């Protein structure tokens, strides 16, 4: 009978249509988009299963899927189907993330591991039901909240100073253990746990944003060094989202308005430009500026664009790096400061003239002038406050001066400074003792003599940060200015320890110069390794 049926000689039986392949209404659209037959069928299966709808995937995801060969595309869709999509809000971006992870695994020769334990979904669901927060999962992070439910917080988005960084997190730990700990400090705006797409585990760190600064500070006190699991202690500190870029190689003839106009053409979200003028010629800037953007994200985008080499400003490629983030000092500490920072001074103003001007408001401990700015130390805060009130914005020898309270020293910044200086010295020693197998020879800069026994790097890339950012190498009085300047305590014993042949024993180097390394007695080095400084100043997430 079977043979007769095959040959068509037997009685005709009805066809079994139960196993017939069914497609969704979008199957033909997938074929017309250029997907191979099997890939279109696999994606259509996912549609029919209700895991994702056709409208969830944009053209970018479909085009990216077409770039894979058939086997690779099927593997990507299988991994996408097996993923937990219950907390994924942007499924199109998630699919693109799966494709990116697949390519990374392909390059590394690794396979998807089924042994890595993900979050306990029952505990995650119980957490979300209790708090009313949402959870958005991508291949790179898990975002809890942001914004929180109105029952928890109905105010505006938190400002700078409300975010903390959490490090040393066990890799298999998730929101069900983190949230109960951190919500003790206050209302959480969002918690972002960084994920490793290759392993499916977290990267060991997270960011928690609170609704108030007080809650963030309380979280540091409560949670830093907390034993979150037996033998596992986490580290917690305030996170400063950097939105400021350092830009060098700026034409010195350009004004602030011209710089704003030029950079606004090639970047988005520019809020302000901080520009410093030459002390002896207020019509010229010092060849660099700081760009402030709306937030860290726009600053990071601007940095990538300016560093690409494709964007030119006034026909030139500029030097771009992160500026050190300016952290707000403790208000209780600032309330005790007795030192004023005075800027925009005329070059003709002397320390004696400043002492005469400010001493009428109270007894002074000392006055120190550096170029067009100075630090005025009062014995009592009341005197400093009176001087600030009376003299700020007033004219002194033809210039309107600006006065604010100086910031206390940043110990971490000093440590970074010392580390950079030590690394700089080591590189010079390696070059002169062992030759230049791994670096170019130093370029020569223009030396400039100085008096007073102190020296400071002036116009190199690193020098911009030293002179305007943050430390005047040998002037040590214990305070910093609120614009990012800093100093420690003047030590006259350093006289005569600069480069030989420079009057006063100090070396003020232009170009990309640095202080001569110790131990090279009799050798004068006035240049610097201009090519090795870029890339050392990164601050922030991108």
Architecture overview:
It is a single chain. This protein has 542 residues and is α+β, with helices and mostly antiparallel strands. Among the domains are: 26-108; 121-238, 2-Layer Sandwich (Alpha-Beta Plaits); 244-322, RRM (RNA recognition motif) domain (Alpha-Beta Plaits, 2-Layer Sandwich); 331-405, 2-Layer Sandwich (Alpha-Beta Plaits), CATH 3.30.70. It is 32% helix and 19% strand. The protein has helices at residues 2-7, 27-32, 37-49, 59-66, 70-82, 91-108, 121-131, 175-182, 213-223, 256-266, 296-307, 331-334, 351-358, 381-391, 411-434, 461-470; strands at residues 135-137, 141-145, 163-167, 188-195, 202-210, 227-229, 232-233, 235-238, 244-248, 270-278, 281-293, 319-322, 339-343, 364-370, 373-378, 395-396, 399-400, 402-405, 447-450, 506-509. The strands form six sheets. A six-stranded antiparallel beta sheet has the order 1-2-4-5-3-8, with helices on one face. A four-stranded antiparallel beta sheet has the order 10-11-9-12. A hairpin with a 2-residue loop joins strand 6 and strand 7 (232-233). It starts with a helix and ends in a 33-residue tail after the last strand. This is Synaptotagmin binding, cytoplasmic RNA interacting protein, like. It is found in: Cytoplasm; Microsome; Nucleus, Nucleoplasm. InterPro entries: hnRNP_Q_AcD, HnRNP_R/Q_splicing_fac, Nucleotide-bd_a/b_plait_sf, RBD_domain_sf, RRM_dom.
